[in-house]
Amino acid sequence: MAFALPNPLPSSLLLLLLMMACSTSAQTYRNHSLGSSLTAQDDDSSWASPNGLFSFGFRRIENGGYLLAIWFSKIPELTIVWSANGDDLAPRGSKVELTTDGQFELKDPEGKKIWGADGALSGVAYAAMLDSGNLVLATQNSVNLWESFNLPTDTILPTNTIGPNGKLVARYSETNYSVGRFQFSVQADGNLVLQARDLAADSSYPVYWSSGTVGTASEVFFNESGSIYVKALNGSILKMISESNSESTQEFYQRAILEYDGVFRHYIYPKRPNISNSKSWPSAWTLLLPIIPSNICTAVMELIGSGACGFNSYCELGEDQRPQCKCPKGYDYIDPNDVWKGCKANFIQQSCNESSSEKDLFYLHPMLNTNWPQSDYEHTNGKTEDWCRNSCLGDCFCAAAIYGFGQCWKKKSPLSNGMVDSTIGGKALIKIRKDDSTFTPSYADCKKKDRSTLILIGSVLLSSSVFFNLLLLLVAFLAVFRFDYFKPKVVQRYPVMPGMNLRSFTYEELKNATDGFTEELGHGAFATVYKGALESNRGKLVAVKKLNNIVTQGDLEFKAEVSAIGRTNHKNLVQLLGFSNEGQHRLIVYEFMSRGSLANFLFGGSRPNWYQRIQIALGTARGLLYLHEECSTQIIHCDIKPQNILLDDSLTAKISDFGLAKLLKTDQTRTTTGIRGTKGYVAPEWFRNMPVTVKVDVYSFGILLLEIIYCRKSFEADIQNEDQMILTDWVYDCYKERKLDLSLGKDEEAMSDMKRVERYVMIAIWCIQEDPSLRPAMKKVIQMMEGAVEVPVPPDPSSFISSI
């Protein structure tokens, strides 16, 4: 069968269609003539580029204002590449208009100008949004008189050039498009640089990155292949910033941006979705390397200015390699909604008043691999960390100290250029007030003010006749009530225990102080401890230990503990404030220890830092030395364990719970008694009916010292490796095999102080020797811990050899 071909189109029609096709393919923009405008009322009010990739118009920002901007319009994720009024958002109803006289202006609903396209605009005939992302104002002959590419904000696009003295300025934050803290500029000498900015003065700080292309006029060019480089005006490439790696603009949307964190990044986005991907579009832009600089936290070290983050804060790279601005302990964000503003101390800083030293009111919080470079005012070589700490604590100007490699740098406030990074080494010591209370006038000051007030009132009264009338009224008043006012009264003193200045409370006082014994702090076999507040002492917090109604043992424990603690006075012992011995009620009142027990501190989850653990171990040792050798009546504690070591707000270790203490007369050296203490910490002699001496506390301290070093309990049944269940056996095996580093796990602080770790382990092994005579006295333990005495190689703890 034959088919008839259709009649050919007339040649004139074919020619017309061909001309239309050519005309369409040649058009690269859509003209918006004089009088065209857009109104800030919704996101649909925009001018699109011919290919639909870019739009120009209004975008509503989170705070409700409208930003006049250019953005990618073909991808789900809103990506703004240029903006006009980031510092002054437009209210709803504002209008941008290309006026009939060729001006391009943004005005609010009342007609007040917010923004305008500056320059010689005489002869403007139309505006156009080009396919490249460039917004232009052009003459009738398509000569561009103004274009957004010549005034970039924080982003450049392919075919965009930054000429000499041109720059990008970062926005303030992810959602705040006002001028930010960093700039990327081509200097007059041809160098491409990154700098932080002083927002208040609208000036720049020293360079923190440069291309090193000094010596010839140059410009930054983003070519159509996706490469970004610095080139001389003659076209030669001086410095490659980011290579395309075949990610051409034919396959990917591209942009490069100086982001609000001060880092210059190059991103791509595929124009076609990945067919193998279930999603129609990727979730975000893909970052190309390198980023400039690679670590903004360590790159910005300025003699002036705050650094990568605000004053008193520090910069740390997150898992996504983006900088995070954080406050050190003792400091809070000035504005929690704007972390770039920096941090402020949440305590009253140290006074420089010579009449009242405040050294003891502060402590130093350590931070590994942390520094605030360039803000030091004093530098000392060849000093120990303890010296550095004491020097800062005694110096009212010192806000923090940096210690490392035998050197001590003291820093003044505000701290600048804060950074945390594993490459830094050393540690920062942040000075913090022990309590967060504010200053109140001292009693002397109050008396002085009261005296001044009385003098002033007296002077005024004496200077007028009113004084005499008041004097007569006062005499009459005293005459009427003289018997009540001048009747002799007996001052009722609180009963005290003989030989001790301890207050005797009534049971009702302590019941009220503890709100009916409601908030429990802890409990043991014979007692429960409650938190309380003494109304008679301005609400001072206390710990009230309530003994159970066990007539014999409870009463014995009460008498032993009150007698023992009442006669002691040492920094590393819990202070006894008073007691109640009323009927069947036995209560003891201690100072309140805000940080709880050492057990909670060591085994509570996050690992305490190494220096804090060292100080706690030394404090406990000094407390035991006092009990054994320095107080008037020698005391064997008999139950040293983490639960009985309490910590105050500055983490000072204080020995508590003397209920099991065994009192010795001054001429006695040892005693024999029944087993006391807690399983796991009890010395072997308790089980062998051997004489019990102060060496039982030394044994318990040895177990405790190992727990402090390793932040784990002496026995842990749930450990898979049976060899590690008993801490003492495992540590001794590691010590013999010279593998102590393996037993430390991921404790980087302790790993960096292995000499001290080994010394402390050796001391602990000496302390847990089965033969009591081999165990050192607490005085020698402290000398060895402080490095004043060498530590001999210890024997196997279960062996019996010659004394240390």
TrEMBL record:
Its main location: membrane. Residues 515-801 form the Protein kinase domain. It is an enzyme of class 2 (transferase). It is a single-pass type I membrane protein. It is found in: Membrane. The keyword Cytoplasm does not apply. The chain crosses the membrane at residues 454-481. It catalyses: L-threonyl-[protein] + ATP = O-phospho-L-threonyl-[protein] + ADP + H(+); L-seryl-[protein] + ATP = O-phospho-L-seryl-[protein] + ADP + H(+). One of its GO terms (cellular component) is membrane. Keywords: ATP-binding, Disulfide bond, EGF-like domain, Glycoprotein, Kinase, Lectin, Membrane, Nucleotide-binding, Receptor, Serine/threonine-protein kinase, Signal, Transferase, Transmembrane, Transmembrane helix. This is Receptor-like serine/threonine-protein kinase. Residues 1-26 form the signal peptide. Its EC number is 2.7.11.1. InterPro entries: Bulb-type_lectin_dom, G-type_lectin_kinases/EP1-like, Prot_kinase_dom, Protein_kinase_ATP_BS, Ser/Thr_kinase_AS, SRK-like_kinase.
